[in-house]
């Protein structure tokens, strides 16, 4: 592949991403896997859904991560009375000249922090659908492009908590990765108390919007062998015929899996994808997109179990090519 990135470019990108990790670690103490998946989503031009009980630093993490990118940031606090126009914006009458002018909503930013997204009803949640998929919004029939890059970092509480609404399947599918955040380890919680005991550190911007666009362009050029395309399709196909799955991974999910694997390769310092890249991101990309049968829908980890079974039973075979 002639336009595949050079190793030196990938090493430069990896060093820039490590700077982001270090800066986030000054504020967020916890599982580093979450930060890695957010970087994967950033490079793959995807969106992130962080799920966990209240108080496990979901908002702290997304705010710190967003601040390191050096891009415009807006935060939306989702509540039951939030309206779609509160997200996208609306036309407002100017009394002075009697004309209507657009008042842009908070979605017009490079990074949108959607806090507790599942505390708003489905009508309001769906206001983000067009923005997340097409990087544009339509207001009163007029189409407006969103800034580039554009990234939604959403947090949600478990759906069994009071005052929460389950996200529609169509919107769940727009999130490239879902990150499940649990309680920190004993060691991490002690470190958190020590680090935040005096004053909460402020993260610094270590990238710019131009840097983010360059990183995304680099990840898009990462080389993928046809064998790995076959492997990705086989993983998705396994979920579609599983006995406990009503709706398996869609073709959009397969595309997302490959995009995330390419981004993971960059974070690992490689200009090409390996089977391990696909395996590393499979659960975070595929599990939340599965619709399970009613009898197992409420079982904790049931979706991840299906993906784990796919990884175990679907083998990767490298094709024999003529010399």
Q: The biggest beta sheet, please?
A: 5 strands, parallel
Which percent band covers the strand fraction? 15-25%
Class from helix and strand fractions: alpha/beta
Number of domains: 2
CATH class of the largest domain: Alpha Beta
Distance from N terminus to C terminus (CA atoms, Å) equals 17 Å
Spans of at least 5 consecutive residues whose pLDDT stays below 50 are none
User: What is the CA-atom radius of gyration, in angstroms?
Assistant: 20 Å
Counting DSSP E segments of at least 2 residues, the number of strands comes to 11
Q: What is the overall pLDDT average?
A: 89
CATH fold node name of the largest domain: Rossmann fold
CATH superfamily of the largest domain: P-loop containing nucleotide triphosphate hydrolases
Shape: globular
Give the helix proportion (percent range): 40-55%
Summarize the structure.
The chain is α/β, with parallel strands linked by helices and 323 residues long. Helix content is 43%, strand content 15%.
């Amino acid at each position: 592949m002639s336009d595949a990135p050079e190793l030196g470019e990938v090493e430069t990108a990896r060093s820039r991403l490590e700077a982001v990790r270090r800066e986030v670690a000054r504020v967020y103490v916890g599982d580093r896997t979450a930060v890695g998946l957010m970087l994967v989503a950033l490079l793959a031009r995807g969106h992130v859904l962080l799920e966990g009980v209240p108080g496990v630093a979901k908002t702290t993490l997304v705010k710190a991560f967003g601040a390191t990118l050096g891009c415009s940031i807006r935060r939306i606090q989702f509540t039951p009375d939030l309206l779609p126009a509160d997200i996208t914006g609306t036309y407002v009458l100017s009394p002075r000249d009697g004309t209507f002018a657009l008042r842009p909503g908070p979605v017009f930013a490079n990074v949108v922090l959607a806090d507790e997204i599942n505390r708003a009803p489905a009508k309001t949640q769906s206001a983000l659908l067009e923005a997340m998929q097409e990087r544009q919004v339509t207001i009163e029939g007029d189409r407006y492009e969103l800034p580039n890059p554009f990234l939604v970092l959403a947090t949600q509480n478990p759906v069994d908590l009071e005052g929460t609404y389950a996200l529609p399947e169509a919107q769940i599918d727009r999130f490239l990765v879902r990150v499940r955040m649990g309680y920190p380890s004993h060691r991490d919680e002690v470190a958190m108390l020590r680090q935040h005991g005096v004053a909460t550190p402020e993260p610094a911007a270590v990238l710019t919007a131009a840097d983010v666009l360059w990183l995304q362009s680099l990840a898009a050029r990462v080389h993928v062998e046809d064998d790995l395309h076959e492997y990705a399709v086989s993983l998705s196909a396994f979920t579609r015929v599983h006995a406990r799955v009503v709706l398996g991974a869609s073709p959009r999910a397969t595309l997302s899996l490959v995009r995330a694997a390419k981004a993971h390769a960059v974070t690992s310092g490689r200009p090409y994808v390996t089977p391990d890249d696909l395996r590393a991101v499979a659960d975070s990309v595929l599990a939340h997109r599965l619709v399970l049968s009613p009898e197992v829908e409420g079982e904790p980890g049931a979706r991840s179990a299906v993906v784990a079974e796919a990884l175990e039973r679907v083998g990767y075979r490298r094709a024999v090519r003529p010399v």
